[in-house]
Amino acid sequence: MINLTIDDKQIEVDEGTTVLEAAKELGVPIPTLCHDDRLKPFGACRLCIVEIAGMPKPVTSCTTPATDGMVVKTVSEKLHRLRKTTVELLLSDHPNDCMVCISSGECKLQELAYLYGIRENRFTGEMRDHNKIDTNPFITREQNKCVMCGLCVRVCEEVQGVGAIGYAERGFEARVTPPFGQNLDCEFCGQCVSICPTGALSGGIWAGKPRGDSVKFTDTTCTYCGCGCNITLRSSGDEVVRVDSDKDNHNRGWLCVKGRFGFEFINSKDRLTTPLIRREKGGQFEKATWEEALDYVAGRFTEIKDKNGADAVAGLCSARCTNEENYLFQKLMRAGIGTNNVDHCARY
Amino acid sequence: MKFGSGAMTNSVAEIAENKAIFVIGSNTTENHPIIALRMKEAVANGAELIVADPRKIPLVKFATLWLRHRPGTDATLLNSIMNVILAEGLEDKKFIDERTEGYEDFVKSIEPFTPEYGAEITGVAADDIVKAGRIFGSAENAGIYYAMGITQHSMGTNNVCAVGNLAMVTGNIGKYASGVNPLRGQNNVQGACDMGGLPNVYPGYQKVDVPANQEKFEKGWGKSLSAKVGLAATEMTGAMLDGSLKGMYIFGENPALSDPNTTHSVKAFKSLEFLVVQDLFMTDTAQLADVVLPGASFAEKDGTFTSSERRVQRVRKAVNSPGEAKTDLAIIDQIYKRIDGEGDLGKTVEASDVFDEAVSFWPAMAGMSYRRLEADSLQWPCPTEDHAGTRFLFEETFNRENGKALFTAVPFVASKELPDKEYPFVLTTGRELFHYHTGTMTRRSSGLNTVAPEAFVEVNPADAEVLGVGDGQRLTVSSRRGSIRLKARVSNIVPPNVIFIPFHYKEAAANLLTSDAMDPVCKIMEAKVCAVKIEV
Question: Which CATH class name applies to A2-75?
């Protein structure tokens, strides 16, 4: 075990723990832009710099392993000045369009600009002119908002194992891009979108949907495969406008393309909205009230049961519906109608 | 069932700590993408990954060893791998002695399955079979992961038994980061099974033809119940056609597209006197119905789903249903009360009350409640209020009478319909990343339908050349049961003589072609192997 001091607080951590992790454990906040504890440390944004006794210059806490007896300072006038300058430099060629940016309110850069009170910028000059690229329906790329933190590149490689994007060019022209500047052609899991600290990456189908106070967050479970990912539905009125996932979940916030972007069926105009009855074979469906439909269904099943026995009726419950619905359905078949003819598509 | 339970024995998070991983009959990255992330993580941690699949699925990129066996030869592949394990003394003798039975007969049954014999049947090189045996047999802890590629065969039960044997012979069950792990294809297949959505068992896998169980549920529900095992979904088709089954109630399923040999099953549904379908959309099945009831999506209801790893999790209502659509729970409750003639029609059923009733019948979930699930999900078995749930099963004992797991001898059985002169190709079916099942939801999600708008058939370049077919060209694929027309995707993903079609697309429904040959034990249909021909 290693003992160190951070801002006059003592902590004991395992060997291999970084200073940033130790600080987090202590509840000492250090600003970061390129760090995510689900990925390997990167040390690109320089915001997590700290002063360590005996070291001549500030070092990045995310890449510095804690050592025994280390004395760390996370707050000082010098650190404040350096961090503020870093943010100013990032903002110097960042579009100042927070009002219409899809990530407003959830943007780490916006939060840092606010924290450091950066209203005007000492470093005005040339702005990047990298295009907005959205040739696929899922992931919209606004490259001018990229801060080159590398989170998207790393999550794609380290977690998803796809490596669809990398870095190209140097300096001012540096950018994140698929090989040879081609269109993004990947699994569209959107891990990159979920981890992007700014508005550089966003969901294509989120555009123009409410993002502020009117949005309600509901924690629930994904409706697709058997992985059982935890998701949060963001809804406005009765419309689901976005799906995301918290990184503290058992799926660690990672989702697939269906879970993240396959939610539009909920508000599809094709949804059935009223009971329909076909009164005679070969006839047309007619709209019916619930009273009518439910009485009719119960009556017909009872009739068949009375005439041909309970085993002349069968039911298929659903691997997509809830436990409660499946339980009640099999109870309906077994206790209500009197048959064990109940199954579902576990075999398909 | 040789262990006495049907679920993932271990948890998803443990996968990252497997030393060896054997994936067979599961296209994990496309069908269980988030479980696949743990496999990739394990590989990054140094685990050896063996992938057995006729198709060059994306997971192959991460594999130490890829076994491209012929479709339908899974059990033989597994047997010959176990032959290697026994021949090289890699079996876990202590585990076998203490925790299993039937070992001698099993050893005898494995004798003929030499790597050479295995190679002949499966098409995998004998050397690779030996390698697989060594990797899996010598790993400190190893897990097996499978899906419909193992089960959807006329000998699916055999295949599952062979998977179980491999775990037992290497002692990879009942311990952390190992196990026999069927990956469930839908959000709540596990729950639908747990809740008794099966013809032979009440909730909690309690057999309907055991009098004590019948008595328990008769007492609990206050009704007399039938002791007769019901019809499996696959058997219902025949019963509809012979007229013994006259009325059906289907909710949240689209068998008119998902059933193998759908022409046959559509004919069956049409022959019913009365069909009720409850769904979100006017599905192919709903179109055949006499009454269609508008149900609710997961975003509109409260309840629970149970994932592949036995994890029971809350589903919470976020939005109201459109129009007059109601939750499936409310509809079922109303119909039940009307048929029963009892109960207050004006009272709305509460999901939590139904949950409490359901878990009261099954000790494995008896310790769960909405109050506990509000804080965090729980994995069954969770028998008491103070039980934390169970990460992996069978640590101490198996759910059989004597507590021991049973080896089952698995013979070589060929698929029911093999290629011949007239139908020279093997068709195998499955899903693709961008769609889900019969596509009723994903094809109504604009993004997904934009990147994956139409059906395709994967054809090996060698076959394409012989047929004179170019990439993107339309062709007709026919089996003895039907015929569909769709675009060719010329690709090395499939081996020569094998073609693959995803079953999501109703305009070129793969299940018009598939066979309804059935496994005699578990009544699953052979959707993974049938013989077809291709015409340009």
Answer: alpha beta
Q: Is the peptide bond before B381 cis (omega within 30 degrees of 0)?
A: yes
For the entire predicted model, the pTM comes to 0.94
Q: Name beta bridge partners: B145.
A: B23, B181
Tokens of B4: 């006495």
Q: CA angle, A174 as apex, A173 and A177 as ends, to 5°?
A: 115
| Span A24-68, pLDDT tens digits | 999 999 999 999 999 999 999 999 999 999 999 999 999 999 999
The predicted model gives B307-335 an average pLDDT of 97
DSSP codes of every residue in B489-518: EE-TTSPTTEEEEES--GGG-GGGTS---B
Alpha-carbon gap, residue B312 to B377, rounded angstroms: 6
Contacts of B324 in chain A (CB under 8 A): 273-275, 290
* Parallel/antiparallel/unpaired status of strands B483-490 and B474-478: antiparallel
Tell me which amino acid residue A195 is. Answer: I
Chain B residue numbers touching A154 (CB-CB < 8 A): none
Q: Look at the domain A127-267 and name its fold.
A: Alpha-Beta Plaits (3.30.70)
Chain A within 8 Å of B444 (Cβ-Cβ)?
Answer: yes
Domain ranges of chain A: 2-75, 127-267, 272-308, 310-348
Give dist(CA B100, CA B403) in Å, integer: 9
**Is some CB atom of chain B closer than 8 A to the CB atom of A318?**
yes
DSSP E strands in B68-129: the ranges are: 100-101
Strand partners, B303: B315
Query: Over the Cα atoms of chain B, what is R_g?
Result: 24
Q: Per-residue DSSP letters for B366-415?
A: TT--HHHHHH--EESP--STT----SSS-SS--SSTTS-EE---------
CA distance A304 to A298: 10
What pLDDT digit, counting tens, does each position of B435-451 carry? 988 888 899 998 899 99
Cα–Cα distance for residue pair B207/B227, rounded to 1 Å = 9
Domains and CATH numbers, chain B: 12-182 (3.40.228.10), 185-229+295-385 (3.40.50.740), 231-290 (no CATH), 425-535 (2.40.40.20)
Which tokens go with B215? 């008595």
Residues of B in contact with A263 (CB under 8 A): 299, 445
**Interface confidence: ipTM more than 0.90:** yes
Q: Which residues contact A35 (CB under 8 A, 6 or more apart)?
A: A20, A41, A42, A45, A48, A62
Which of helix, strand or coil describes residue B20?
Answer: strand
The answer to whether B471 touches B437, Cβ cutoff 8 Å, is no
Report chain A's C-alpha Rg in angstroms. 28
Calculate the alpha carbon distances from B342 to A75, A293, B249, B497 in Å. 70, 18, 20, 60
